Backbone:
């Protein structure tokens, strides 16, 4: 059946409109199906990594492992970061940081990075964060408690970094040229090795 559109003077076939709706619906269905498949794939990959690294169970609520995730931001401390993933277990939100190095004990800089993620989780999710997990390639993992003492040390470290940056007083704390090459402060550092 034809419909006469008196405003434009054009003629539409009702079947063409129905076919257009069917095509659009089919395309939307396919896109939704592909997004569901992608979500399942990411979830499976995350679970494989969790099993491989012997990380405790919990629902993954954030992941920066496969697809770049949105950065977390703390307005209070003006810091930004992206933990490898965040799990929810028994109403707790736990940041997890995976490190490729094989060490026998947690490194100080890794601990402070995880503490910053704990703070970011608290500020972004508006929950109290008791601890974070630091996982190394060799299967060792460490539960780092976010104690009042470590909270204070993190706040002091942030203040010290801001002061050093403001005064352009960067101090190299290592003798490893590979760290200098990848350092984000390289252009400001007068003590760089390379």
Residues:
């Amino acid at each position: 059946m034809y419909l006469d559109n008196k405003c434009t003077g054009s003629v539409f076939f009702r079947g063409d409109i129905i076919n257009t709706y069917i095509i659009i619906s089919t395309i939307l269905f396919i896109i939704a199906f592909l997004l569901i498949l992608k979500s399942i794939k990411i979830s499976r990959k995350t679970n494989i990594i969790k099993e491989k690294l012997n990380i405790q169970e919990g629902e993954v609520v954030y992941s920066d492992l496969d697809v770049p995730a949105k950065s977390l931001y703390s307005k209070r401390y003006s810091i930004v970061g992206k933990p490898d993933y965040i799990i929810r277990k028994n109403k707790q939100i736990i940041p997890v940081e995976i490190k490729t190095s094989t060490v026998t004990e947690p490194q100080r800089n890794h601990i402070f990075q995880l503490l910053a993620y704990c703070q970011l989780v608290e500020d972004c999710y508006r929950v109290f964060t008791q601890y974070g997990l630091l996982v190394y390639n060799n299967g060792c993992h460490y539960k780092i408690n976010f104690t009042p003492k470590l909270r204070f040390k993190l706040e002091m470290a942030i203040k010290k970094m801001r002061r050093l940056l403001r005064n352009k007083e960067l101090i190299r704390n290592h003798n490893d040229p590979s760290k200098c090459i990848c350092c984000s402060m390289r252009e400001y550092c007068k003590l760089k090795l390379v």
Notes: Strands lie at 2-4, 11-13, 59-63, 72-74, 79-81, 85-89, 92-99, 131-136, 141-145. The mean pLDDT is 83. The radius of gyration is 25 Å.
